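Posting this for the archive.
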Amino acid sequence: MRERRRRVVSAGDGAFRTRTNWRYAEIRPIPYQVFNQLLDGHGGIITTDCSGLATCCYKRAGVADPHGLNYNGQGFTGDMLVHLPHIPLNRAQPGDLAVFGDGNGKHVVVLLEAPSAANGMNPSCVSHGKPGDPHIASLATFEGLGVLTVLRAMPRGHQIIRKKLQAKWRVIGDAEKVIGHVYTTRWLWWARHRRIVKRQRENLRFERIHH
């Protein structure tokens, strides 16, 4: 296994080992610093979702942000699906990503091994999709979530072959504080970050970003 992929798998294993310190919620920004503290043995509580786990593993490993957002703390599975090359399952390698669900995807996991005859083309992966996670399971565990899309998260030569997304809107919350950025549509951001919305005492507003 090449070094970059080995580091991603090691980070995924580390997430599983520290699972008692994890909480599940769809919030941003992604807590990279807390993840590093946990894996370095300094404790702490980390709260994030499935794409947050995957992105933490990649940042820890020192490879490119799978969202294509330069680790700005934002991103979700839809960004990964736009940004990264799609590959057949039989070409997947340890450290690649597997997204389940149509459209912008419902769930993403990090592959810990390559599909092979030995594992019945059903490799193990690390997942953080509910309270009590992260856990390690076979890829087939998530088939009920819908169509599988495998993403080559470390393209050869570090080349990203899909166009990077740019934020379209700033999300302004209480006290005129910027609490997020929208890379797709406003209604989708609202739906995926409903916990953030509920914490705001006043209505959110969206400010167009002119590139």
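The chain has six helices and eleven strands. The longest strand covers residues 107-111.
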